[in-house]
Design brief:
Blueprint lengths: L3 H29 L6 H24 L3 H20 L10 H5 L2 H24 L21 H17 L5 H28 L7 H19 L5
Helix pairs in contact: 1-2, 1-3, 5-6, 5-7, 6-7, 6-8, 7-8
Organism: Emberiza fucata
InterPro entries: RINT1_Tip20
GO cellular component, one term: Dsl1/NZR complex
């Protein structure tokens, strides 16, 4: 169970390798019989049901191993993305996200997501380049003079959104949104702490960088306000 990519990749290969046969040979038979069944989707659905059984058996064994659990979630999300984007799977059919949404698994996912996000925030703020803009030498790209830590933080929030956006229920998505709000508040506190160290040099490089960071984050959050 520590290598979920093995069986997830195998299922994707089976779906891809059988698609032409199902479309060319099986679907015409179903159509001729007046059936509304889509052969390719039915084949995919049956294989996904096997994966759900496998996940239901494996997840309890690795719930409290952060590394293995995080790896499983990453692989499942990659699998889901390819299943929908490449193989035309439908959101109305059974999905791995239903397993990840079950209470014990979901709460563990939230906990691990928060843990790794906080670690990322620690590293981005302790970096030597934290207050320097990646684009400082390209004036037409760097109008807001965004420090690296602020840009990395907003990318972190965007990645989290991308990971949970396909959850099947709004209530689960809202719990992830709650996590993102916590992270924004945590980042605000960290910026405040750094700013207090810089009050004697309010026109100094780092103090200005903090103001630029706050302005950038506020602007991006305002842009995201219409994203339901």
């Amino acid at each position: 169970f520590n290598k979920p990519e093995w069986y997830l990749t195998q299922v994707l290969m089976w779906i891809g390798n059988h698609s032409k046969f199902l479309d060319d040979k099986i679907q015409p038979i179903l159509d001729k019989a007046g059936s509304s069944v889509n052969a390719g989707l039915e084949f995919s659905r049956a294989l996904v049901m096997l994966i759900l059984e496998k996940l239901a058996a494996d997840i309890p064994c690795l719930l409290y191993d952060d590394t293995l659990f995080c790896h499983l979630v990453d692989e499942v999300l990659l699998f889901e993305r390819e299943l929908y984007s490449v193989h035309g799977y439908l959101s109305s059919l059974p999905s791995c996200m239903h397993i990840l949404s079950e209470e014990s698994c979901f709460q563990r996912w939230l906990t691990v997501e928060k843990k790794f996000a906080l670690q990322k925030m620690d590293s981005m703020l302790s970096s030597e380049a934290a207050w320097i803009s990646q684009y400082k030498d390209i004036t037409d790209v760097d109008e807001m003079k965004v420090p690296d830590c602020a840009e990395t933080f907003m990318t972190l929030l965007l990645v989290i959104t991308d990971r949970y956006k396909n959850l099947p229920t709004a209530s689960r998505k809202l719990q992830f949104l709650g996590l993102q709000k916590e992270l924004v508040d945590d980042f605000r506190i960290r910026l405040t702490q750094v700013m207090k160290e810089e009050t004697r040099a309010s026109l100094g490089f780092r103090y200005c960088a903090i103001l630029n960071a706050v302005n950038y984050i506020a602007t991006v959050l305002a842009d995201w306000a219409d994203n339901v």
